[in-house]
Structures
1.
Amino acid sequence: MKKLVSIHRPYIILLLIILGFQSTQAQVWTIQQCIDTAQVHNKNLQISKNNIQSGEQKQMEAMANLFPKINANADYRYYTNLPYQLMPLSVFGGPDGKFKEAQFGVPHNINANLQFSMPIYNSQIIGAIQNSKLASEINLLQFKKTEEQIYFEISNLYYNVQILNSQLAFIDSNLLNSKLLLKNVLILKEQLLAKGSDVNKIQLQVEQLTTQRALIKSKTDQVLNALKFTIGLSSEQKIEIDLKIKYQDKIQYTNSTTTDIQLVKTQNRFIKNELRTIRNSKLPSLSLFGTYGTMGYGYDKVPNDFLKFYPIGFGGVQLNFPLLNGTVTQRKINQKKIDLKNSELQQLLVIEQNNMFVENAKLQRESVANSVETNLSQIQLAKSIYHQTVLQQKQGIANLTDVLLADNSLRESQQNYLSAVIEYLKSDLELKKLTGNISTTK
């Protein structure tokens, strides 16, 4: 059954007076507004989004290797010494086994052509495309994981600010009570019904509460700055949060596959595909190729100087079949098999660990759920006892020590209540994360 608990029932008016009007221009932010703003301004989320876009480009790059490619080539060569060829003398009627060296060609050679190539089947390109798709899935899961972590951090910081503001409300209420008590004791001292040491005890308590309030206020500002940083806002921007602490008592979350489990499963598929790609490297590859261009020859000696060009073009199919590369491929296969075993073990480890964490979070939440309401009723009881003791002290029935003990009991019950609320919110937030429901925080 859903239940709304506010820890400011006795102190809401005081809290509004002290905190509500300190910055009339500051915007009150809900936890949903904090999370929505972080989606736009948080730097870690922006980096994760950029990684997704980079992964998409890598996937398109891998697919582009299937497209035809055309290259333009040109070169010019000037031979200071023309290459020699050995001519058999038998061609010219000479004896067999005798050769004569001869230089062929002209010193000027110009070559310009277009080269075309397109793979028909290449297992390595196909494997790279599949890997790039899985890498894109991993980038998406990494973004989701970063997003959930940001949700978790914002929720945790938001709750901390609420708790600290609640502590301030309790301290302000106690400080007001102590000042009233000090005023009464001063009157009693003037009437010679109280000692100077009694006044000193109350003054010490007022000073301690004042110091404690300053420390809590400083810590609140620090946590609020951390919250603004996580959201992606500048530290100069003034914001206020909803001061009411709300939680749903003992809500049941539906277990779903967490991002960490999805991530290890996808990484396992990635390693399997890498293993398959290495095995397929033993398969032949087939591609089309072709060249079209011109070849120029020139001679710069008179009287036969010339520069002439002749067309050249051809096309064909190339088959590449790897026959032997030592044991390199087999060693790579063995390595990937070991990586795959580790990945499968890691997957089981993450699942079992998550199940254990879920059970522990449930137990932790159940153990503190009942104490929240119990401690809240104890606050009311301690408050009643305190006021009764103060009244008895005015009537001379109780002494100052009784009042101070009642005051300490009130403060202790307040602190116990806040501690119980903190533990409940933390365990509930952890349970949301472990059951894959952290995004429902907003």
2.
Amino acid sequence: MIRTVLAAALLALAPAGALAGADVYIGVSPGVEVRRTALALARFLPSRAQSPEDVALAQEFGAIVRADLMYSRYFDIKEDPLSTANLDAEKASLAHWKEMAGWLVTGKAQDNGGVWTFTARLYDLSGGNVVIEKFYQGEKRALRRAAHLFSDEVTLRVTGRPGIAHSKLTFANNATGRKEIYIADYDGGNLTRLTSDNSINLLPRWSQDASRIYYTTYRWGNPDMFEIDLKAGKIRPFTTFQGLNIPGGVSPDGMTMVMTLSRGDDPGIYMLNIVTKKLKRLLKGFGVSSSPTWSPDGTQVAFVSDRSGNPQIYVLDLATNKTRRLTRLNWCDSPSWSPSGDTIIFSGRETPREGFNIFSTDLTGSQIRRLTSKAGDNEDPSWSPDGRFISFTSTRRGRREIFIMDSDGSAPHPLTEMKGHSFTPNWSP
């Protein structure tokens, strides 16, 4: 974030009209193989067999759940399009599925015009018992969320691990000609624009309960921080200190934000009480510092500083106020702490002639591993809430887009297809 913090600081001094066309960019363990569980997925059925609307709805729910379960990489999905085993499965039907798997997912759906209903079950085929039965009802816009929630219920019950199908990503995009804030489901669905500021909006960050998004905006000329209340559907100013107001992240207890502030001086790292707005500067005499990110236990903060010359990754221990340097590359930026607490990912380059890539490091800095290579510039990494995937920006297809890859750097793919350039993704809790 260092190089963009400087660009943002220059923008703060620019005439308001100059912001309209500016291209601002604020920014300076190998995957574990999981044994896949055989899980049978029955064809989801319409509640009313003669209703084309019910048939289409059941197919839509089934397709989303199937995609979620396959994306998780936890399951070996078994299907049989000819089987009628579903919510009203008889013992003979369950015996049919038991030959393929130890678990069975079934579902039914009904389209009632403005409102739909969806009922789904998970069977433990070893005893023929229903271990999960869920009923959902809602409007069309909530359909995907219901399917994602059920998929995560299945994942948790079968594997004991939380699913991420209900998670979302937020990011900035300039398809409108101005940079606005968007959200999308983890799989790119439900793409929604949240802001219409007609300005430059960047670096969105989630609250711990995923009910709010904080972002930097030039709406009023200064790079202020605004807050999007997703439940209330309202956007309001959050901090408006002179100079840079850039969110870094919210503490695990949800009470404190680490952020980058300049306040007429070099950008530095601060802690902000979210309720009282009381500030505390964390670093003194540390050059230009930015991009703070919390450790999962809330005891440390990783950040970027140019104290040693080029920007590098440092870690601050909040109890002792001691810092340690993790990296010695040509340039480092945008650290993100893994949910497990043992790894930090960041963007960087090893030599001045290289593009930017995504790297990971242990907490000693002795095991640095490059996760991307020879695929344009790759920056702004952010972990999925389960620590198994990484979102990032990439220019590998010519323009800046949001990509997702496995935590070991494999299987990179675009989040969604949309116009313009996309920036600074952040994955929800």
